[in-house]
């Protein structure tokens, strides 16, 4: 019987986001030690996922007037986390960097044309990762941009962080700044996303057949190291 390998629907690993799933699976393993179940590794660098995002970016640009699609600034986003969590476990930022840089490169975006920001920070006293996407909008308007394209690289579907945090809160902030916010369509049930998930499953099955694979708690950062040198900067403050 193939070893069960749950695929978590977040390409990049963070203990605060995905730790609950790990604990639940750890409890199940303790109750059924004969079943070797391990969470699939982070899949932020899966080629099919990068291509999925690239196609969504290309589609969003194609819907813009010809005079804007080659100049519109792009902001890649992901869920913010408490700064202290990432200080203990910086792999989350590394994986976000890989995904954003890879999509920007494939889309032919010049490094000066795109930025990275966070969104959906919690309302708690401790510092969270910045910059927030809303904080970048006035600067874009000051640079004479009238539009911006937002590209979430961590979320897969239309949900609260997309439909409210971007489509309402960020869009309202953009309107106040005098800029029009555009967003890629989310993958949802896109065949490209299904292909990406299929690739992750096949990868995990190959690991099972080969008899390898790291223990559950060591499988979070096993993608290739992120590429360097193309990014306009990934906010980490």
Task: Walk me through what this model shows.
The protein has 237 residues and is α/β, with parallel strands linked by helices. Helix content is 45%, strand content 9%. It has helices at 15-31, 47-62, 66-69, 83-88, 91-106, 133-142, 160-163, 165-177, 191-210; strands spanning 74-79, 114-119, 147-152, 180-183. A 4-stranded parallel beta sheet has the order 2-1-3-4, sandwiched between helices. Helix 2 (47-62) crosses helix 5 (91-106), helix 2 (47-62) packs antiparallel against helix 9 and helix 6 (133-142) runs parallel beside helix 8. 35% of the residues are buried.
Taking Cα atoms only, what radius of gyration do you get, to the nearest Å? 19 Å
Structural class: alpha/beta
Count of DSSP H/I helices: 9
What is the count of β-strands? 4
**What best-fitting shape do the alpha-carbon axes yield?**
globular
Strand order of the largest sheet: 2-1-3-4
Topology of this protein?
Layout: H1 15-31, H2 47-62, H3 66-69, E1 74-79, H4 83-88, H5 91-106, E2 114-119, H6 133-142, E3 147-152, H7 160-163, H8 165-177, E4 180-183, H9 191-210
Parallel strand pairs: 1-2, 1-3, 3-4
Task: Give a nutshell description of this structure.
By secondary structure, the chain is an alpha/beta fold. The chain is built from 9 helices and 4 strands, in the order αααβααβαβααβα. The protein has a domain of 132 residues: 3-Layer(aba) Sandwich (Rossmann fold).
């Amino acid at each position: 019987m193939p070893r069960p390998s749950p695929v978590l629907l977040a390409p990049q690993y963070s203990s605060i986001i995905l730790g609950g799933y790990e604990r639940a699976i750890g409890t199940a393993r303790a109750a059924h030690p004969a079943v070797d179940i391990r969470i699939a590794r982070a899949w932020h660098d899966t080629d099919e996922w990068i291509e999925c995002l690239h196609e969504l970016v290309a589609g969003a640009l194609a819907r813009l007037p010809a005079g804007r699609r080659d100049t519109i600034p792009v902001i890649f986003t992901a869920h913010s986390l408490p700064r202290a969590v990432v200080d203990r476990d910086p792999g989350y930022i590394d994986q976000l960097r890989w995904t954003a840089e890879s999509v920007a490169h494939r889309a032919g975006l010049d490094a000066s044309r795109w930025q990275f920001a966070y969104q959906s920070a919690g309302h708690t006293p401790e510092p969270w990762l910045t910059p927030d996407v809303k904080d970048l909008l006035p600067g874009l308007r000051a640079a004479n941009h009238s539009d911006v394209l937002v590209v979430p690289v961590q979320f897969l579907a239309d949900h609260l962080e997309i439909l409210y945090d971007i489509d309402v809160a960020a869009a309202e902030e953009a309107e106040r700044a005098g800029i029009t916010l555009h967003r890629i369509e989310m993958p949802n049930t896109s065949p490209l996303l299904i292909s990406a998930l299929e690739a992750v499953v096949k990868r995990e099955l190959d690991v099972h057949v080969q008899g390898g694979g790291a223990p559950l708690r060591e499988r979070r950062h096993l993608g290739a190291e992120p590429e360097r040198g193309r990014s306009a900067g990934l906010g980490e403050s």
